[in-house]
């Protein structure tokens, strides 16, 4: 199964922001329980970094003054692991497991974000596929629907 099959679900988790968005606004966006990753984009809509809830907490823990003036470029990670719609869901899940990620951005050929893959969503889709295959195999073995 390819990531593109999960795009409708992944699109619901996608929140993009511009590089000049301030930390309080980043925190407000991340306060939604279903959003755990912000994708930072340049004016052309290309991904240039990501911000997680943990990134915000780290900024607060540093005790820096003027937190409310920190822009997305000051907070974001620029070295981003991502996937593409044509990637195998199993391969992406392996990468996520190896790196300890729960979310990973999906980008197109032009580096524009098209969704955020959540490990739970990916596992549910894979489980449904396995259950479907199991049903087909059981029906075949029992001769149901084959005349």
* SSE topology string: HEHEEHHHEEH
Instruction: Give the CATH class.
Output: Alpha Beta
- Sum up the overall morphology in one term: elongated
Q: Looking at this structure, what is the CATH superfamily?
A: CBS-domain
Distance between the termini: 29 Å
- The overall strand count is 5
Summarize, please:
By secondary structure, the protein is of the alpha+beta class. The chain is built from six helices and five strands; from the N terminus they run αβαββαααββα. Helix 5 packs across helix 6.
Describe what this molecule looks like in 3D.
With 147 residues, the protein is α+β, with helices and mostly antiparallel strands. It has a single domain (3-142), classed as CBS-domain (Roll), CATH 3.10.580.10. 42% of the residues lie in helices and 17% in strands. It has helices spanning 7-12, 23-30, 53-61, 72-75, 89-99, 119-142, and strands at residues 16-18, 37-41, 47-52, 103-107, 113-118. Strands 1-2-3 form a 3-stranded mixed beta sheet. Strands 4-5 form a two-stranded antiparallel sheet. β2 (37-41) and β3 form a beta hairpin. α5 crosses α6 (119-142). The chain starts with 6 loop residues before the first helix and ends in a 5-residue tail after the last helix. 22% of the residues are buried. The model has no long low-confidence stretch (mean pLDDT 88).
């Amino acid at each position: 199964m390819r990531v593109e099959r999960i795009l409708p679900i992944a699109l619901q988790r996608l929140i993009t922001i511009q590089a000049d968005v301030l930390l309080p606004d980043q925190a407000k966006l991340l306060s939604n329980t279903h959003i755990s990753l912000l994708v930072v984009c340049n004016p052309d809509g290309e991904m240039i970094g990501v911000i997680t809830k943990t990134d915000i907490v780290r900024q607060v823990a540093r005790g820096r003054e003027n937190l409310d003036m920190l822009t997305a470029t000051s907070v974001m990670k620029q070295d981003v692991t991502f996937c593409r719609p044509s990637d195998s869901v199993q391969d992406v899940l392996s990468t996520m497991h190896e790196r300890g990620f729960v979310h990973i951005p999906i980008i197109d050929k032009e580096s524009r974000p098209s969704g955020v893959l959540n490990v739970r969503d990916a596992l549910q889709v894979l489980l449904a596929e396995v259950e479907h295959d199991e049903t087909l195999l059981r029906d075949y073995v029992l001769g149901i629907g084959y005349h």
